[in-house]
Automatic annotation (TrEMBL):
Full protein name: diphosphomevalonate decarboxylase
Gene source species: Corallococcus sicarius
Record keywords, A-Z: ATP-binding, Lipid biosynthesis, Lipid metabolism, Lyase, Nucleotide-binding
A GO-annotated cellular component: cytosol
Residues in Diphosphomevalonate decarboxylase-like N-terminal domain copies: 7-163
Length: 328
């Protein structure tokens, strides 16, 4: 009745931005990401505890944070079809100070896989991805390693909306993602609220959906060919389009800070000098640089020269895995 899983975060190369169903977390469009190592989250789940207890990164979770975890475990209980008793959950991330990447994707992926295992359900990547999605959309892409595509699906019950691995972590081992922390502040508008406002108020939203859906197969082809320049250009254009959609929302939503723009400008100049480095940007000010192993040191130097207070160098990461050592 106890299981422990370690999962990595992922960075979207073609972003997910907007839900067609808020409760089930169903997206308007497909997305594509790369799972990132070495940063990870480890989660232990035990059913049959004395009372429900959720501990995240060293503190006892309360309110909506706790509810999201317990709701996911309720879905596990339904799948198990029996009374599993109260649950104890302990989760810890090794994310360096404000890694600039949310730990929720890795956290919910680890929780979904560990929850099913602790309930005695068989290992099932698709079922785990659907379960993780119900915790946080992007989490469905962290159940597996390498390059994963979240298929938007058509069904109202969401059973065809899950992530599939297109290429494993060994496909492109020279690829690097360098997280540049230019701003440690908490973001003012969470992804969940930001994307909701884009769906409801941005006149550009329908164009975003159409464009992002069309970019996914293009990104897949560029990854198959290991075309760094092509993928870099695609990532930048997709990030700009996601942010433009939100800049056009009412009220407008801008996640970029002056430091973000400074780094992006510098990156363009470096590219003209032959340094192969591109960026992507989630719902926050910290760019993630896309480059290769031969230029990761240059990418880190570039980020620091532009005021990055912390830099995390990542390589393609693997699947969520079961561990034999538990957190409690
Ligand atoms: C910009 O998956 O955190 O990082 O489904 O509401 O929990 P919820 O949102 P979340 O949003 C991620 C948004 C993004 C793009 C992406 O990862 O695809």
């Amino acid at each position: 009745m106890k299981a422990t899983v370690r999962a990595h975060p992922n960075i979207a190369l073609v972003k997910y931005w907007g839900k067609r169903d808020d409760a089930l977390i169903l997206p308007h469009q497909s997305s594509l990401s790369l799972t990132l190592s070495p940063i990870h989250v480890t989660t232990t789940v035990e059913f049959g505890a004395a009372a429900d207890h959720v501990e995240l990164h060293g503190h006892v979770a309360k309110g909506s944070e706790r509810d999201r975890v317990l709701r996911l475990l309720d879905a596990v209980r339904v799948q198990a079809g029996r009374d599993l008793g109260p649950a104890k959950v302990v989760s810890r991330g090794d994310f360096p100070m404000a890694a600039g990447l949310a730990s929720s994707a890795a956290g919910f992926a680890a929780l979904a896989v560990a929850g099913r295992q602790a309930a005695g359900l068989p290992a099932d990547t698709r079922a785990s991805s659907i379960l993780a999605r119900r915790g946080s959309g992007s989490a469905c892409r962290s159940v597996q390693g390498g390059f994963c595509e979240w298929l938007r699906g058509e069904r109202e019950d969401g059973e065809d909306s899950y992530a599939v691995q297109r290429f494993d972590a060994g496909h492109w081992p020279e690829l690097r993602m360098v997280v540049a922390i230019v701003d440690r502040g908490e973001k003012e508008v969470k992804s969940r609220d930001g994307m909701k406002s884009a769906v409801e108020t941005s006149p550009y939203y329908p164009a975003w959906v159409k464009d992002a859906e069309a970019e996914v197969p293009r990104a897949r082809d560029l990854i198959a060919k290991k075309d760094l320049e092509g993928l870099g250009e695609l990532c930048e254009r997709n990030a700009w389009r996601m942010h433009s959609t939100s800049l056009a929302a009412d009220p407008p939503l801008c996640y970029l800070s002056p430091a973000t723009l400074g780094l992006i400008q510098h990156l363009r100049e470096q590219r003209k000098k032959g340094v192969p480095v591109w960026f992507t940007l989630d719902a926050g000010p910290n760019p993630v640089l896309l480059t290769d192993a031969a230029h990761e040191v240059a990418a880190e130097a570039l980020a620091r020269a532009c005021g990055a207070v912390d830099v995390v160098r990542c390589v393609p990461g693997g699947d969520a895995v079961l561990l034999s050592e538990h957190l409690f």
